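ESCALATION

Customer reports they have been waiting on this structure for their group meeting. Please prioritize. Original submission:
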Amino acid sequence: MHDFTPTAALIGGGLIGAAASLVLLTHGKVAGVSGLYGGLLRRDTTDLAFRIWFLSGMVLTGFVGSAIFPSAFASSWNANMPALVVAGLLVGVGTQIGTGCTSGHGVCGVSRLSLRSLVATLTFVLAGMFTVFVVRHVLGGSQ
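Update from on-call: job pushed to the front of the queue and completed.
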């Protein structure tokens, strides 16, 4: 990890935690991105405006951040489009099966001492570690 920046990581983690806390305190909702996005696709959603504003704010913030500080978004990683589509679909299916994602379970659920979220978080962290190991060391993917 030659490019680890603990100060930036600490600030970013603090901002994520503060945002998740603010959403819970002001709206009584878990700031789980996949759950908020998934609710946009359901007809019975009662808080459509909140979901649209929350997700739009995340996207807009990313665009503004990349315009102000483009080097923070620089990456040498280049995957082909079919791999990205398959990965996105697998993540989407996984978040529906696990009823949540890293932001819902890993940030919000674990901080509320939810056993279900702890198990889910350990599961997706271990699955991610296994996937990286297989891609890099078994299939010989990029380092």
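Sent to customer with the following note: The first helix runs from residue 6 to 27.
Escalation resolved.
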